[in-house]
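Schema walk-through. Below, the input block comes first and the output block second. Nothing else is stored per chain. Lengths vary across the set, and this one has 210 residues.
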Amino acid sequence: MSEPQYFSAFFYGTLLHPAILCRVIGHGGPELKICPALLTEHTRHQIKDEDYPAVLPYSRSRALFTSQNRELAPEERTVRGTLVQGLTAPDIDLLDVFESDEYTREYVFVHPLGAFVSFAESAATSASMIPLAAAPLPPLASLPAALRAQTYIWARPLSKLRPDVWEYADFVRTNAWKWVGDGATQNEDYVEVDRRRTSGNSAARGVDSG
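--- output ---
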């Protein structure tokens, strides 16, 4: 019997919330490990009329700031998130369904900002590995070595994005109730992934080599 294959993924939006990740993949992740992490040379933006964000390389998002005649400093071209190790192929398939064709799954390199801990233990003790008031970033030149992971990059037009940065703290305060607990019952963003998980039919898609 061949050894199971495991994957690493970087999450930066609604999936920072452990309850939402558990809902999507359908389990509490006893084999998963998680740590806070940083993606450089990318920016995270509010999608117009949506609760969730988009991330894209700064080489592409730079155009969002031209009207402001603004060039972001390297420290501003960063996205905080979580790095999760131990995801299975079925987990990735369900994440693909959840993210839909608004995103492409691509390889990136992210810098761990702390030690890996058990996802299940972390989920039981906190709302996220990302605190609502995050500590200052270390100097970019002194970041730990980057690890390869997959993440979901915005694939739709820039016109659907606002220049302002999406903040996880704002999501928790104003919109998380639509995604967790009783408020999530009528959330249409879960409909297809719930159906695929229940039926055991989740169609995998390829990953961009990035």
